[in-house]
Amino acid sequence: MTDTVPRMRPLGLAARMILFLTLALVPIGVVAWFQTTKLQEETRLRSQLSLVALTEAAALDERETVLRAQGGAQALGATLGLDLFGPDGADNVETCSSRLASYLSASPGYSFAGLMTVDGRIPCTSTGGALDLADFPRLQELLENPGAAAWLNRNGPISQRSVIVVAEPFYVEGELAGHVLLSVPSALLPLAADADGIAPPYVDIVTINAKGHILSSRRGVNQVEGLLPADLDLASLIGAKPQSFAARSQDGATRVYAAAPLVPGMVSAIGIWSRDNDEAQAISVSGFARALPLLMWGASVIVAFLAVNRLVIRHIKVLSRRMRIFARTRRVPETRASREMPSELADMEDDFLDMADAILRDEAQQENALREKTILLKEVHHRVKNNLQLISSIMNMQIRGSREPETRFVLQRLQDRIRSLATIHRNLYQTEDLGHVDAGTLLADLVEQMTQLAEINGAPVSVDTELQQIEAVPDQAVPLSLLTAEALTNALKYGAPEQGADHARVLVRFSRDGSGRAVLEIANTTPPEGTPQPEKVAGEPTGLGTRLIHAFATQIGGALEEGHEDGLFVVRVRFQLKAFEHDETTPTRVPDVPNF
What we know:
The protein is of the alpha+beta class. It is about 45% helix and about 20% strand. The strands form 4 sheets. The protein has a 6-stranded mixed β-sheet. Helix 1 crosses helix 5, helix 8 runs antiparallel to helix 9 and helix 8 runs antiparallel to helix 10. The two termini are about 35 Å apart.
């Protein structure tokens, strides 16, 4: 039996098609991916610029309001600063307050105006009285960090309403003298809808100061917190370039934001846009366009697989299934499936059916030849068995006519060996498979024939058999049977009852020994020590049976062991079972016995 090395199963047709399509589409996919990525980046950049421009345009009112307040504060600082800090400055406080009140009357967009000096005093206000700096924490911060600033005061102490305070520094003789303060009511800023009540395209427009604090919101300052980015410091947008980005808001939604400076370094606008906006979609949606090459590859693979499966694979599976059915049952399909098959596969099916017909015809011829050969071989074994029985009968007549004991004994021993051969050929004639002989059954018939009415030195004998059914080739089964016959004859001839027993025992055992080996044991009881041994019959060839046993053991390739074990005399042979040949009709050859 030869060992078969496992062979790796090759890839199927569908897998190979997918592989080749993948290799073919890789260059196209790479080019498409780079082009799509480049186009998407350009579209994204244009959309960002467009959203920034739209945000700047939407926050134009807030920008003009802050710039107008900033310009008014600069003008007031330039005109009132010299009067307040001139030689007669102490006497001009009332004049300064009067001018501020007149300015507010001429400019209805403001609710308060005042001048704060660098030493923290607010001597001049539109209300006509001085203010205490301790009541205004934001003004104290302005003293520490002077400069243009804006902030939201939700409850102005003067106007008692929400205002945006714009602070602008003024200078006297080149040195910082203080800040002009103008308050713009938040109610004057635009709301979320225009005059016609039409909803704007944005979600909200929010303005923030340099510290990231909210100044205004189209929806209302109290409602804008949840719309702002969750993980972003708004102060980082001041001074940065105009930009747009997608981020998750504090309420958990994903929105698009655009940041644009209204007053550089002072006020910026943040546009909050819905993802449904056309410009916002180009920023927030980025994966679909890049996935197009992958989707194209997937669609191509699916189409190719369906085409190959319908045109080739399903027909090959049908043809393969028919081949397997023929291999198992030797049944040729009655109908052809070539109507839907491509012409190449239809030709393959025709070739298979022709080959199947040829195989069936050849197998029928071989079966007939094998049957005839088996019948002839069985007839040979039958004739050999008959001839051996005829020779045994002739020898029996000769034994009855012989007067000399020596001659009778020699003829009887020869007749026993001929009967053994006849039994072997009878079993070979009766077996169905001449290449496989059941050695256990063959030995059982041989032992039964030899031990009928058997006695050992006039004492009855019991024969125990333990014979496994082991198949062997005829070239081993025949010498094994002859070896058993010789060893059993010696056991019956030289055995004796054990001490205290009235009969002798003979044991014949045949079993497997693992690793394809078999063991034959023939044991007989022996007389106690000191008991006279049976006398040899005159004329018997000395040691002929033992020499035959050695010769047959050599022919089967076994190792012979003889000796006493536990009160028994044991003859043991271990041998390797031969592998069966492919030609099971090989004639059985009776082994030659050496000429001793």
